[in-house]
Design a protein that fits this description.
Strand content: 5-15%
CATH class of the largest domain: Alpha Beta
Shape: rod-shaped
Order of helices and strands: HHHHHHHHEHEEHEE
CATH topology of the largest domain: Heat Shock Protein 90
Number of domains: 2
CATH architecture of the largest domain: 2-Layer Sandwich
Length: 397
């Protein structure tokens, strides 16, 4: 099955038409590159000049779509023109075919054509000079250089500039894409960080409010209701203050507002005392040296979220918080009674466990939360190992 030739490019069609009309004009006024008495003219008469002219114009239609084919048949047409009285436009169109073969052809063709035409130019100058021993013989090489090597070299220069411009454009696009990916990743990471901070700051207060409001509504005891309302007010005021502080930082586009100081392990006592106020029986045991701020923040938030989960889900009993530093690792352990309950005392989304795991992973630490047996019975244990120095990431088995 024959493969149809591709449709010529509109510019190529215009070039072919212009060349054909120009050649016909020169032919019409009787101008030729050689006289009728030239010994090279083997095909006499004016009409034979038109055959290579029309053939060369047809080759111009292929200068972009099939540049190698166009150059091959254009060479044959130029050879045919050489045995006639000749037409200057036929030669000019051939130079354009050489140029197009280098610019639009495959890379191999673009490399070979300048070398071939360069060798032809050298041989065209050296061989006739060696045979005839007259300086005028060099003009043959000059003519070949003008007709073949010059357009090939010009095409090679243009192609190199075009390829360099295309490479620069691709590099710019890749750089912009990488910058956009970096920006997206930075925004995603910042949103995740803000989500963790917002959850850890507010969830504890809202959980206490939900639990104590339920107690105030379900128990017909004025003293119990008063105590519950007191706890509700304290937690709502503290939660509102933290929310306002966080929202103010987010809205401050000038960066004049200073962010609230990050909590440290020195604040664990107050955190545990607040949990006791909310109704948990909590014990705290810590043994550690001064730690880097990111480690202290992560440990504080993990303990805070664990106490919040214990407030919502734990069975009645003692909650223990233990922090111990050993071998360059801070071990965090929070246990709470685990047993069958009708349901949580406050709704949860599961984001707390995700946030704790992310905090440990960001420090190269390990995290696990699961029910296990202990000397005090079935407990829910939250374990985190936070390296004081960089350590490989992973989860506790």
């Amino acid at each position: 099955m024959a493969v149809p030739l591709p449709r010529p490019h509109p510019h190529d069609a215009r070039i072919a038409l212009a060349g054909l009309l120009g050649g016909l004009l020169i032919w019409g006024v009787g101008l030729g590159t050689r006289g009728a008495d030239d010994p090279l003219v083997l095909w006499e008469g004016r009409l034979p000049v038109l055959v290579p002219l029309f053939a060369m114009a047809g080759c111009e239609l292929l200068r972009r779509t099939r540049p190698r084919t166009g150059l091959l048949f254009g060479t044959l047409a130029l050879t045919a023109d050489g045995v006639t009285q000749g037409n200057l436009v036929t030669i000019v169109m051939f130079t354009d075919l050489v140029y197009a073969a280098v610019v639009y052809g495959p890379p191999a063709t673009a490399r070979r054509v300048p070398w071939i035409t360069g060798m032809m130019t050298v041989l065209g100058a050296v061989v006739p000079l060696a045979v005839w021993r007259v300086p005028e013989a060099l003009l043959i090489g000059v003519g070949i250089g003008i007709v073949a090597f010059t357009p090939a070299a010009t095409g090679w220069i243009v192609r190199n500039h075009r390829d360099a411009a295309e490479a620069a454009r691709l590099h710019a696009e890749q750089t912009a894409l990488l910058a956009e990916l970096d920006r997206t990743q930075a925004v995603t990471a910042e949103r995740a960080r803000m989500a963790r901070e917002l959850h850890d700051m507010v969830a504890n207060h809202l959980s206490a409010i939900a639990i104590h409001s339920t107690a105030a509504l379900s128990l017909d005891d004025p003293r119990t209701s008063l105590e519950a309302l007191t706890v509700i007010r304290e937690n709502s005021v503290e939660g509102l203050a933290e929310m306002r502080r966080l929202i103010g930082i987010l809205r401050d586009s000038s960066g004049d507002l200073e962010p609230a100081a990050a909590p440290t392990l020195d604040g664990l006592g107050a955190l545990v005392e607040g949990a006791r106020t909310n109704g948990l029986d909590v014990t705290l045991d810590t043994s550690h040296d001064k730690l880097p701020a990111p480690v202290e923040l992560a440990a504080y938030r993990i303990v805070q979220e664990s106490l919040t989960n214990a407030l919502k889900h734990a069975s009645p009993g003692r909650v223990t918080v233990t922090l111990a530093q050993r071998d360059g690792v801070l071990d965090v352990l929070v246990t709470s009674p685990y047993g069958d309950r009708d349901g949580p005392r406050a709704p949860g989304s599961g984001a707390g466990l995700v946030g704790m795991r992310e905090r440990a992973a960001l420090l190269g630490g390990r995290f696990a939360a699961a029910a296990e047996d202990s000397a005090c019975g079935r407990v829910w244990a939250v374990r985190a190992a936070l390296p004081v120095t960089e350590a490989p990431q992973g989860d506790l088995a």
